[in-house]
Amino acid sequence: MVDPSLVRLLPGVREGCHRLRAAGFTLVVVSNQGSVARGIATPHMVERVNDAVRGALGMPDLPFYYCPFHPKGLVPFFTGEHPWRKPQAGMIHAAASELALDLARSWLIGDASRDVEAGIEAGLAAARCLRTGPDHLSFDAACERILYDSTA
Length: 152
Prior knowledge:
The mean pLDDT is about 95. The N and C termini lie far apart (about 45 Å). The strands form two sheets. The chain has a two-stranded parallel sheet with strand order 1-2. It has a two-stranded parallel ribbon with strand order 3-4. The chain is mainly alpha-helical. It has a single domain (about 10-150), classed as HAD superfamily/HAD-like (Rossmann fold). The chain has five helices and four strands; from the N terminus they run αβαβαβαβα. α1 packs parallel to α5.
């Protein structure tokens, strides 16, 4: 079940996001939410979880873009591929257009290969698409790299 009361940030995420924002970066979340297509969640439930993440981060204005579609969905309206579904770049392009982001100067932090693939598909340099998780960078290390490279 999709439950906003279960939202917990990984260590260093809140601090890292605040450091990036203080350095002048615009933060955006792009997320596949196939649970909607699978009938596990509704868009309203996803929005409630997104609001809980905003609250945990202390960033009530943080923009979220999410894709509720999945090719193996059970909810007919949301069943199928969609240009916003990562590894496609639709959400990133939408955010860039709506928020006037320069993708050539942008960074992406994600915890799956499809996140990195979406960033590269959107036109970000591969070196600016950072993967976190086991056998990859910690979120804190990803933030450090971005902050270091932006001042070098």
